[in-house]
Design a protein that fits this description.
Strand content: 35-45%
Number of strands: 4
Distance between the termini: 32 Å
Strand order of the largest sheet: 2-1-4-3
Order of helices and strands: HEEHEE
Number of domains: 1
Largest sheet: 4 strands, antiparallel
């Protein structure tokens, strides 16, 4: 990896996160994805909203869980 690319990745990881996408599951658990901008959060939320109503496998437990809601929130 070039030094320029490594520096860009380091800057992006260090940038303050101002928004988050929160995914809520039927079993009461949630998952959040912090982002730098509202546009990034909206873009990520589009993909997460496709999962609403679907039954997914929880990687930690192996149990099927349904996605019930997705929202974007400011931090």
């Amino acid at each position: 990896m070039s030094p320029e690319v490594a520096a860009l990745i380091a800057r992006r990881l260090a940038a303050p996160k101002q928004f988050e996408v929160v995914t809520l599951y039927a079993d009461g658990t949630s998952h959040s994805h912090p982002t730098e901008t509202r546009a990034q959060a909206d873009k990520h939320a589009v993909g997460e909203r496709r999962k609403v109503g679907r039954s997914l496998i929880n990687r930690a437990t192996g149990v099927a869980v349904e996605v019930v809601d997705v929202y974007v929130s400011a931090l």
